[in-house]
TrEMBL record:
<feature type="modified residue" description="N6-(pyridoxal phosphate)lysine">
    <location>
        <position position="193"/>
    </location>
</feature>
<comment type="similarity">
    <text>Belongs to the class-V pyridoxal-phosphate-dependent aminotransferase family.</text>
</comment>
<keyword id="KW-0032">Aminotransferase</keyword>
<dbReference type="InterPro" id="IPR015424">
    <property type="entry name" value="PyrdxlP-dep_Trfase"/>
</dbReference>
<dbReference type="GO" id="GO:0008453">
    <property type="term" value="F:alanine-glyoxylate transaminase activity"/>
</dbReference>
<protein>
    <submittedName>
        <fullName>Alanine--glyoxylate aminotransferase family protein</fullName>
    </submittedName>
</protein>
<dbReference type="InterPro" id="IPR000192">
    <property type="entry name" value="Aminotrans_V_dom"/>
</dbReference>
<keyword id="KW-0808">Transferase</keyword>
<keyword id="KW-0663">Pyridoxal phosphate</keyword>
<dbReference type="InterPro" id="IPR024169">
    <property type="entry name" value="SP_NH2Trfase/AEP_transaminase"/>
</dbReference>
<dbReference type="InterPro" id="IPR020578">
    <property type="entry name" value="Aminotrans_V_PyrdxlP_BS"/>
</dbReference>
<dbReference type="Pfam" id="PF00266">
    <property type="entry name" value="Aminotran_5"/>
</dbReference>
<dbReference type="GO" id="GO:0019265">
    <property type="term" value="P:glycine biosynthetic process, by transamination of glyoxylate"/>
</dbReference>
<dbReference type="InterPro" id="IPR015421">
    <property type="entry name" value="PyrdxlP-dep_Trfase_major"/>
</dbReference>
<dbReference type="GO" id="GO:0004760">
    <property type="term" value="F:L-serine-pyruvate transaminase activity"/>
</dbReference>
<feature type="domain" description="Aminotransferase class V">
    <location>
        <begin position="27"/>
        <end position="327"/>
    </location>
</feature>
<feature type="binding site">
    <location>
        <position position="336"/>
    </location>
    <ligand>
        <name>substrate</name>
    </ligand>
</feature>
Length: 382
């Protein structure tokens, strides 16, 4: 049915009606006083969301652009960096670092498992000469549904003295990322995830320690030069033409998030994660990530003996529910259920009901009818 599509993927995520309406507002001049007022308001909202007094800068980019900016502004060619890699996006940050001529050392963990903070401790303690300049961590590894222990890893980074650069693209707005309390230096995120917006804006928070590193960083940059954004943000404007209507959307989305409150946002995401995982267990399907490292944004499912792409196909064709597929070597082996951003209890129940019907159509009957929905409902009402 037209206009009934339901996004249950890790991004783009569903967009509220009020945010969509804001997008449809007539553009205004980006050098106008009216735009400066909006800029000031969203900047304060972003600091609230990041739980920081640091700069939070806004780019016209994806989350990848925010992360690239977060790396190149604070490092120089040949600098040694430690990159946590336990999925598609950890691997991506290693590739970005290599592309800029950085000396990359990876701390690895198999896909579907969390990075071990002790591995970072060992690597950092071995660096007695303090040659490691930065550690790059993916907080919520979207490709596998794993939430890495950012707080524990960051403690090791702080003890060493290196910068920590965090991919919080699918964790910010879904789980607490207390930038100031944890002393996080650089945190990148993107609008199409927990912000409940379309793609197009990237966000980078920057600490005082990172700005000190910026003064001597020599990697090439122009459009992504965060110093320019910081200077103009002080005047409630931007160095380059921004996507004005996305600022309207951001303003509306942050207003919704502040009305819900951080604690309620995080509790909702935790509840949806628990409900989804309970349903998958009740359907006797394998979860790709363990319970103690479950991402609040995405649940990856490994349906042994069933092509995950067939499940996704039926969900889309029969019920107009979009699930995400596996990436790289996981294609066809896993499907991923997004529960990030503008997602509620009803969405989870509908998706699980559609999944049950899709599994039946494929001949999978290793569960009692309604078991998944019942398990999800029980978790939601707990």
């Amino acid at each position: 049915m037209k206009d009934k599509s339901m996004l249950m993927i890790p991004g783009p995520t569903p967009v509220p009606e009020s945010v969509l309406r804001a997008l449809g507002t007539h553009p205004i001049g980006h050098r106008s006083g009216e735009f400066s007022q909006i800029f000031a308001r969203v900047t304060q909202g972003l600091k609230w969301l990041h739980q920081t007094k640091n700069d939070v800068l806004i780019l016209a980019s994806s989350g990848t652009g925010a992360m690239e900016a977060g790396m190149i502004n604070f490092l120089s060619p040949g600098d040694r960096v430690l990159v946590g890699s336990n999925g598609k996006f950890g691997e991506r940050w290693a590739e970005v670092a290599l592309a800029y001529g950085l000396d990359v050392q990876e701390v690895k963990s198999p896909w579907g498992t969390a990075l071990n903070p002790d591995d970072f401790k060992a690597a950092l303690e071995a660096d007695t000469a303090k040659t490691i300049k930065a550690v790059v961590i993916t907080h919520s590894e979207t490709s596998t549904g794993v939430l890495n222990d950012l707080e524990a890893i960051n403690a090791q980074v702080k003890a060493h003295g290196a910068l920590i650069i965090v991919d919080a693209v699918t964790s910010l707005g879904a789980v607490s990322v207390p930038v100031d309390a944890w002393g996080l230096d650089v945190v990148g995120s993107g609008s199409q995830k927990g912000y409940m917006m379309p793609p197009g804006l990237g966000f980078v928070s920057v600490s005082a320690q990172a700005w000190e590193a910026y003064k001597t960083a020599k990697l090439p940059k122009f459009y992504l030069d965060l110093g320019k954004y910081r200077k103009d943000a002080g005047k409630n404007t931007t160095p380059f033409t921004p996507p004005v209507n996305l600022f309207f959307a951001l303003d509306a989305a942050l207003e919704m998030m502040q009305a819900e409150g951080l604690d309620n946002i995080f509790a909702r995401h935790a509840r949806l994660t628990q409900a989804t995982r309970a349903a998958i267990k009740a359907l006797n399907l394998a979860l790709y990530a363990p319970d103690d490292a479950a991402s609040p944004a995405i649940t990856a499912v490994a349906p042994a003996g069933i092509d995950a792409e067939k499940i996704r196909s039926i969900m889309k064709k029969r019920f107009d529910i979009a699930l995400a597929g596996g990436q790289d070597h996981l294609k066809g082996q896993v499907f991923r259920i997004g529960h990030l951003g503008f997602v509620c209890d009803r969405d989870i129940l509908a998706a699980i009901a559609g999944l049950e019907a899709s599994l039946r159509e494929l001949g999978y009957e290793a569960f009692a009818p309604g078991a998944g929905v019942a398990a999800a409902a029980k978790a939601i009402s707990a």
